[in-house]
Amino acid sequence: xxxxxxxxxLAKAVSKTGQLGVVSxxxxxxxxxxxxxxxxxxxxxRRALEAFPVKEIGDRIRERYFVPGGKAPDQPFKAVPMxxxxxxxxxxxxxxxxxxxxVFLAKEKHDGIVGINYLEKIQLPNxxxxxxxxxxxxxxxxxxxGIPRAIPGIMDQLSRGEAVELAINLAEADAxxxxxxxxxxxxxxxxxLPEIARPLFLAIVSSAPLASMLARKASGHVDxxxxxxPVAGGHNAPPRGALELNANGxxxxxxxxxxxxxxxxxxxxxxxxxxxVASPQGLQDSLDVGAVGIQVGTVFAYCEESGLGxxxxxxxxxxxFDENAEAPVIRTDPRASPTGFPFKxxxxxxxxxxxxxEAARPRLCDLGYLREAYNRGEGKIGYRCPSEPVDHFLKKxxxxxxxxxxxxxxxxxxxxxxxxxxxxxxxxxxxLITSGDGLEGIRQFLKEGAKAYSAAxxxxxxxxxxxxxxxxxxxxxxxELAGA
Length: 484
Fold this sequence. Notes:
alpha/beta, TIM Barrel, 7-stranded parallel sheet, globular
């Protein structure tokens, strides 16, 4: 869905129906800092910070970022430090606390289960992020956009209060050169470490061989899998084999990209299906091939509780009841994301992926979540992004071809949740909306005459036909996975 579209409100709403509610763990340090700067409407972030186990850290974050009544609309947001191998102290504290805040709020005042979803591709904040989520009692850690082989073992270590280390990908590395980022819970608590439960771990995969490898060779136990097809929103796995594009410049997926369900069943771990299955029939079909349930994204993204900005949400929903509304057409863009993964965009007017907005935006990189580490030589490490100014990227040894068609996904996703930056020259970042191909599935949840629907409406609609294969008549939740 993008950063904070699946926020604590949506995760809580889904969790309270008896399902697994999931918050996005992407860029939460920036999200929380900006929520505080717009005045922390409702006081939710400050309430969660008060519950953070180290009071001084919560106090420092409030003092640094909170603006009573909110900043002026034309005033830029105060910057959050960019990610590095060794974050400065206040940034490390913010990362831990921000992940704690989002999970705490999603779990507050009910006994449902809550997970958090991370991208393996955004490696630098993952250690303190996972720790913060575990500290708040996350029931499940989910990770995709890469091969999260090291994460299950890291979760084991963090649950024991141990220091952890994660190898970081390094471009142009010399022979034998390796780099890593480290995190020690004592950096937050000193020697007075709290007891922390180890959540379940679900890996997002696009093939049975990858799932099998993770089940056999991950550093710790993988409790289950989410199998995402190419029609799912956000980042998609690239097609297998040589990249071919259709007439619209989109990657062509074929037979090789279909997941072998018999092979998945033989692995012996529970799995969900994701992408194009958000309907009663899709759920039933998933159960029939051996899945324990489905992951639902796009139809939740446009429900009342999601973090998607109200203007963007209204524009997309209007197509279902206003014949004059702009009809969104989803495009799988092979170049939009700096990661190199195909990325689904909804190129509406006045959004970052629309040609006019793309051409008007000055290239810059000031959030940096998708930067890559590269070898500068003489033992020095630098950071670069294909979406930064082209001359900057080239000076850092990057190839010109990699800059073509790149969008600033980081700033675009912040604008999508109405936390976009306003520049000193008055330029305002446009939103970047991502959706799965199943956008039309929204129609089934809009009641006659209605212009909105809730997360509970989605769950009720999916379960309306009492699917076969669910012992309780509900999709199995994360708490059941270990024994499924």
